[in-house]
Structure formats: C-alpha cells, structure tokens
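Query protein
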Amino acid sequence: MMNGEYNDGQLSDTYLDNIIKQLEISDGSQATACVRSVFVRNDAGTFLKKLDERIKHYDNEIEKLCNFQYQSFVKAFHELLQVRKDTTSMKNELVKNNQMMQVAGQSLAKKTEALIKEYHRQSNIQQTIDVLSQAFPVFETYRKLQECMEEKKLYPALKLLEQLETKHLVLVKEHRWSELIQNNIAKFRSQIRNESHNELKNFLENVATHADKIGKSAFAQAAVRLDIDRRYYTLEEDRKKDQKQQADGSVDSALINMNITELIDFSPIYKSLHINLFLNCKEEFSKHYQREKQKQAPVILDVPPKMHESFDAFKKYLQRVTGFFIVEDHVMNTTEGLIDQRFYYELCERATQQLLAVLRRAVLTSYNPDLMLDMKIVVVLFCAAIKESGFPATPLLDVLMELRESYQQLLLTQWSQKFTEILNNDNYTPMVIEDETKYQLLQRQFPLRIEATEKLPFPRQLPYSESVPKIFLEIKDFVAVCAKFAKGLNVSKTEIDDMIRKPSNLLLTKTLKTALIELTAAESRRQLNFSQLVQICINTLHLENAMPFLEDYIVALVHGGAKQLGLRLQGASMLKDIRSLVEDRIYDKLNDKIDECLDIASYDWMMPEAFGVASDYITTTIQFLENTFRAFTHLPTQLSQTTCLSACKHISNSLTNILLSQDVKAISFGALEQMSLDLMQCEVFASKINIANLDSETLLLCFQDLRQLLDLIMDKRWSVFFDNYGNPDSPFARVAPRTALIVVEKLRDGLKRPLLSKFNRPAMEKENIKMLETVANKLRPLMNDNS
C-alpha cells in the first residue's frame, strides 16, 4: 500500500514538473489550461510548492550569472561613458557639416528643379507639336465634313466620314476631344440617313405626281399593239389641247415613244440605297422603303369622287395605277435587295383586290351599254399595259366576263323595249311594196325571198307585216353589238362565237319570246282580233325561215365566211313555240266567237216535233265559219287544218254539253230530232270545207260521237249497241254508256210529264217508258264496269 501511494506521488510530481516546463516555454496562451488542470487534480498546494522551488532555482541561477559577469559589466559601462563624450563631439561636428550642406544643397536644388521644369516644358511642346500634327488632318477633315453636311453633299460627306473613322481618328483616339468628334460622327450618320429618307420621300411624291403620265404612255403603247383608237387612252381636255398638234401626229408619237426615265428621276433612290449600303443600313432602308410603298399604295388606289360618273376619271384612275406599278417594277429590276418578288406580288395582290372591287362597282353602277363597252376596252388596255410590269392581270380579265354579263343584260333590256315598241306599232296587215327600189332595199335588210311573190306586180303584197324585217334588223344589230365586246379580248374565234350566240339565244328565247307572249296574251292591253293573230302566226313562220340568214351573218362576222360547227341559234324552236301559243289563242278566239253564236240557242226541250230545218243559231254559226275559213287561203296549211278541226270539235262538244247539261231535266223525242237536224247542218258544212290536204271525212269524225248517240236513241237500235258493245267496229262504238244513260233518263222523265200525254197514245207512252227503263237498267252495269 505504501508502494502504491509512493507511486501516485511520484506521478503527481512528474505531472507538475511537466506543467511548469510547459508554462516556461509557452507564450502565456496555455497558462489558463495548465492552471485549470492543476485545480482539477487537486494539486494546487503541491503545484505552488513546486512553483516556489522553481523560482528560487532561477533566482540562484541569476545571482550566479551576475556575479560571474560583474567585472565585465563595469568595464563596459566605463567604456560607454567614454564613447558618450566622443559621440557628443561627433554630433556637434555633424550638425555643423549638415548646416553647411543644407546651404550648399538649396542652391543646387533650385537649379535642378528649374532644369527639370524646362525639360518637361520642352517635352510637352514636342508632344503638343506631334499631337497637333496628327490632329490637324482630323480637324481639317471634320471641317470639310461640316461644310458637306451644310451643303447636303452626301456622297463627299460619306467619304470624309470613312476617312475620319478608318484613318485619322485611330491616331488620336486617346484624346478626349476625339470622343466628341466620334459622337458627332454618329449624329452625322443619322443626319445622312434622314436626308436619304427625305430624298426617298421626294422620289415617292414625284412618282405619285407623274404616275398617270407614265400610265398614259403605257396605255398608248398597248393601244398601238392592239389597234385601239386613241380616245381610249387620251382625256377630253388633252384632245382639245392637242387638237392642233395632232394633225402631224407629234403628240401621239411622243407619248408612245416616251421612256419612263424621261418622266421620273431615279437617281435619288439609287443614291439613297448606296448611302444606306455604306452606312450598313441597307436592310433597314429596304424595310423603310417597303413601309412607305405600303402607305402610298392605298393613296394611289383610292377611288376619286364621282369616278363612276366620268369616263375620263375612270381612264385616269387606271392609268395612275398602271404608272405606279411600272415604276415599282423598274425599281425592282434596277436595284438589288431593295424589294423582292415576294413584296411586289403582295403589293399586287392587295391592289388586285382593290381593283376588282372598283371594277365590279363600275359594272354595277353603269346602266349605259355604250359606256360599258368603252369601259371594257379601257380595261383591256389596262391589262395589256400593266401586264408588261409583271402585274397578274388574269383576275382583272375575269371581271370582263362579269362586265360582259351585265353588258349583255343591259342590251337585252334595251332590245326588249325595242321589240315591244316594234310589235305595238305594227298594224299586222301584209306589207305592201310600192316599187322595185324599195323592194331591193327590203331584200338587203331582210334577205328572205318568197317565190310566190317574186312575180307579182307592184305594188306587191308580201305575206308578212312590217314588224318582221324590223325585228330581223334589230337581231342583226344585237349580234353586231355583242361582237364589239369580243374585240380586243385574247380569246379564240370559237369563244367569240359562243359569246355572240349565247346572248343572241337569250334575245330570241327570252326577250323576243316574252314580248310576243305579252302581245298575244289574253290579258294583254292590246286585244288582238282574229285576223291579227293569224298575221302573227304568218310572221313567226317567216322569221323562222329567216334564221339561217342570221346564222350566216354570225359566221361571216366571226369566221369570215368559213362554216363552223358550234352552238346553234334557238330562234326556230322558240318561234314554233310562240306560233303554237298564238294558234291556241286563235283557237280560243274562234271558239269564243262560236260560243257567242251558240249562246243564243234556246231549245224547247219538250217540243213535240222538230221544226224541219236547222235552228237559227246553227245557221248563224255556220255562216260565220264559212266566211272565216274562206279567208284561210293565205294561211299556212297546217294552221288552216288545225283551226278547222278545232272549230268542228268545239261545235260538237258544245252541242253535246247543251244536251247533257244539268239544267235540262227532261227532253222529248222532238227536241232530239231538232238537234239531229242542227247536227246534220254542221255535217253538211264540214263536208263542203275546202282546205288543202284536209279530207272532209276527217272533219266529219269530229261530229261522230254526237251523231252515233242521236242515231242510237232515235232509231232505238239498242240491241245492236248491247250486242256489239266493246267492239271497235260497232256502229255505235263512240257512244259512252254514261252519256247514253243521261239522255235516256231525260227522255224517260220527259215522257212522264203530263204535258205530252195529249200528244202520245197511252199505250205507246207506256211502251217507250218501259223500253227506256229497260235500257237504263242495262246501261248502269256497263257504266259501272267502265268506271
């Protein structure tokens, strides 16, 4: 145990010795840590003891050292006192010498400083001379640059700018004033660019001023190529001014041979482009030019007030547009990179839309065919002139088709009035030609020859009335006017032929047809009589025969006489349709007159016996028809035939309707006998009619239905009727059971009336009634079978 304590004490002493050594060799930064460790180990007392021992050790060591060096210290101290004396002497000597040196150095320093200043002055002078020698060309060039800018000499100014930037300012860039000049150069660049824009503006104003003159020159050149009269490119005021000079053709020659550069000075645009190319602003200048053009284009394309009311204003407008695009095309072809095809076509596209609107409005607001024809020629000139500048003129040519339709519609309206006037003024009597001269004049106007009239003496009567040659002439004039519209269009002869024939067919099938229909209509204001309607039929026949002459006229007009296969005129078929309508009106007129005669019929349906002669109304009707048909010698054969057949059928139907009328409740055999006599009178009339190629048997067939009915009832041949019913060869094949039943029932009712009892024997009366009832009973099933 003692050994353990001894070891612990030994370790503690060693630890404390190490702490003290550490304190000795440290700079004091470890003192706190060492002291803390001592207190932590509870060795403070031992540590203090060790520390005191260590202090005493060092005190002994110091004392030993001092004792050992004391003699040397004393000796050194004495030597130091001796040195102090010498040092004081030396100090006084140094002060004295210093004062002497200071006095001598001040004079030298002044001279040295003056020498240095003079050196610097000489160096500055030399540098100034060198700088001025470099700056003088800069200032001189800058002065010249200012003079050029004041005088707006942009080309020399650009060269001086180039010299300043590339040659002179490089040498003086370290000077502050060079920055001022550099800043001013930027201002000069901006000023030069602005001046180039001003020149561009002046150029555009010059273009706007002379665009119409350039367009007029282009119109004149196109007119020469297309052989178009000068009035379509000159204005009224120009023609008045140039009337004196026009005698020798000098004005037109100058206009035709005029070059665009004679009217427009293009040097400003070239200079501006070159300037901006030098300033590296070509792309910006190109965009600026295109923006200005886009602003100018709507102004050029703007329609002047009341343009559509003045033909000269219309021409001037198109000439201005033409001149604008000719200038633009010239700029595009003579400059590089200023504008491209894309921009030009976009400009053309916008202009095309505006022009289409203008032309369509001009078409819609024009009501004069002559003015529209002039407009068409001007549009053709415009397309031919502006096409040379690369402008897409095809859409504008398409508008001509719209113009053509409006033009043709106006012509149709105008000719409708002419046809109406001609038809209303005609008296519809055959023309009478007084002498050979007038007949030859008529043949030149209306070349249809009629062999039957060629040998007649003068005054010579022709079958048609005076409206026929007038209408023929009007149709020829219409064809000629339509042909005028096709002139100048770049189309084939076949297309021209169609352009003439289509409106001509409309003229015939609609305009003329409408006029004829309105004239012959039952509700027409001019109520035509029977003879006038007949004359219209004859007129349509001769107009139809004259259609080949119109065909030949169109062929000669378009193809020069060579026969061509194409669209045919539809006048012949139209005239046939009109003739058919007029024939119906003739039939109606004739039937109305027949009805007037038949309306006076007053049958006594209960008469015991017939009069023995035809009724008065039938005699009157027959006399009217005989007089009418006697005048049919000059009618067309077919019309005469159909008119006679129609009259006979109408008489037969009217007599049948009278017999079957619901107003007639009862009839006697005497009334049937009287109607049979009336029908016999009609049959005699039909057998005596003399119409070419019309057999009397055909006319007699018109009365056959009524004749068979009357014979069947009066002859009481019912057994033959019933036995042969349905047989087409039966003598009563045309008798319908329903019709026979109606008449039988009326006869039966008539026999039952007491009025007849005193005239008939009772036995016979009963027999007839019984027989009629039996017939009626047999007829009803047949009528039901037919239904």
Summary: The domain at 410-585 is CATH 1.10.357.30 (Tetracycline Repressor; domain 2). The beta strands are 432-433, 460-461.
